Amino acid sequence: MSDSMISKSNETLSKQVSDETDDFGLPLRKKPRTMVKLMDDQVDVIRMGQYKLRDYQKYLFNEAKKENIIICLPTGSGKTLIAFCLIRHMFEQTIGDYPSIAKRTFFLAPNRALITQQYETAKILLPGKITMITGDQNPDDFSSNDWMKTLKNFQLFFVTPAILYDIL
């Protein structure tokens, strides 16, 4: 990704910042459908350093676009990069009223440290309303209405498998 494209993306993103805040006091960023187009124009490149997808990552990304797959690769081989590209690719499906129109995306990691790390990276790289739910927020105490409100307010969730299980 060229520096000019990165600058243009950052400029567009900064124009989308709102004074409104979510339930946790974090600023909401408005992300119109044009952001999907802007991100797609960057094709197979995503800023994490300035990595491009390797051939095997492109292959797995394309397979994941066709059907559900499980990717099992060694540490450091780019599983997260593939996942973020797929999340970006499917972003438009998360736009609109939930649950009647829009879908929601859940990113799972086995522990809070990994969830936090991936959440911080996603906030920089991905469009949409993104949240992280941990045990600190006492999700066991959320009512059905609390969960529905949270699902309506966010498009991408970073959680542990245990928290997703509680939601279901």
UniProtKB/TrEMBL annotation:
Coiled-coil annotated spans: none
Residue spans of biased composition, Polar residues class: 1-16
InterPro entries for the chain: DEAD/DEAH_box_helicase_dom, Helicase_ATP-bd, P-loop_NTPase, RLR_Helicase
GO terms for cellular component: cytoplasm
Domain Helicase ATP-binding: 60-168
Domain of life: Eukaryota
Chain positions covered by the region annotation Disordered: 1-26
PROSITE patterns found in the cross-reference section: HELICASE_ATP_BIND_1
TM region positions: none
GO molecular function ontology, one term from the record: nucleic acid binding
PANTHER family xref list: ANTIVIRAL INNATE IMMUNE RESPONSE RECEPTOR RIG-I, HELICASE WITH DEATH DOMAIN-RELATED
UniProt name for this protein: Helicase ATP-binding domain-containing protein
The organism's taxonomic lineage, starting at the top: Eukaryota, Metazoa, Ecdysozoa, Arthropoda, Chelicerata
